[in-house]
Structure formats: C-alpha cells, structure tokens
Design a protein that fits this description.
The chain is mainly α. The protein contains 10 helices and 2 strands; from the N terminus they run ββαααααααααα. 20% of the residues are buried.
Amino acid sequence: MKQTGARNIAAGRHRTPDNRCYDAAMLLEFRAETVAMGVLEHLERRRQSLVANPAELVAEVRTALEPVRRSYREAELPPVYLKALEDEIAQTIPARWQALAGPFTDDERRGFGLWRGGDPIARLCYVALGFVIGVILVRAPFIPLWEKAIPFALAIAAWWLPDLQTRNRKRRYARALGDIVRALAGAQKALDQQITLNDLLPPGETS
C-alpha cells in the first residue's frame, strides 16, 4: 500500500527496510531550511556581480546546490526528495533574492543615503547638533530634565549615528533574507510527502 509521508526525512532516526540507518544530524543537512541558508550565503558572496545578471544567478544557484546533491547521493537517499527540493529552491530563491538584493546593493553603493557618506565632517556636524539639542533639552523650562551630562551624551551618541543607520539597514536586509528561508522551511512538509514507502525499499522490492 502506498503511504505518502511515511518517513520524515528531516527528523529523528531513519531506518530503511534494507537496514541502512541515518541519524538526524545527517538528515538535517537536507532540510529545505538548511539548504536555503547555504544557497543564500553562497549568493551573498557574489552579490555585486549577480544582482544584474539573472542568467548567471540561476546558474549560481545550481552551483550552490552541487555539494548538497553530491552528499545526498552518497547517502543513497530517495532521489525523488532531492528533485523536489531542488525544484523548490530553484522556483523560490532566484526571484525573491534578486528582488531584495538589487535595491540593497544600490543603497549600499550610495552609502545607504548617509549625508557625505558618514565621513568625519558629517559626524562632527552630528556631534554639534546633538550637543545643541542636549542643551535645549536641559534649559527648556517645559521639559523636566536637569541632568547636565545630557548634551555630552547626545553629542557622543551622534558620532555613531551613521553606523547605527548602516547597521539598521543591514539588519532589515538580513531579516528579509530570513523570510525567504522561513518560506522554504514552510514547504518542508510537502517535500517530505514526496517520499513514498516504495522509495524506501531496496531495489526490486515493492510494498
């Protein structure tokens, strides 16, 4: 009898009918989430050249999958799962990554829109502005602040404002990439169900 999803390729210990046993650590290597993170890391290393070249991007995704493909075949796991995994990666990552990486790379080349690129002159201006704002806050009668160190604290913090802006932009980009990984992780159940009981039997045997 055909049973879909009889084995979850991503959890626990997995024993095939011919007594081959695979532990969770090895099988986790082939989860959609794990593979997606590896592919995205690979693409990020060549982001500058890939964002403007869709054909090269698709080829690079295939290249990034090659170690996974090789390890999977060495483990002698059901080919149907690998095919479904590769299809899911190919359908999801190139378009979604390029949609994020293109604007981010443009922003990065423009210095994330920082005034004067956050150079020392810009930072000194931020420091002066922070100090002035701090003095106003301390002296304004309608704001109950009397701490004399506030102007100096704001001035010091203002020096690092360009770094905070850059870090915030990179953090948003990283979260967006994480959304791609989570989307593929959500496809794991459907990928597992590609494997039938017959796929787990030794060659020549059927259920």
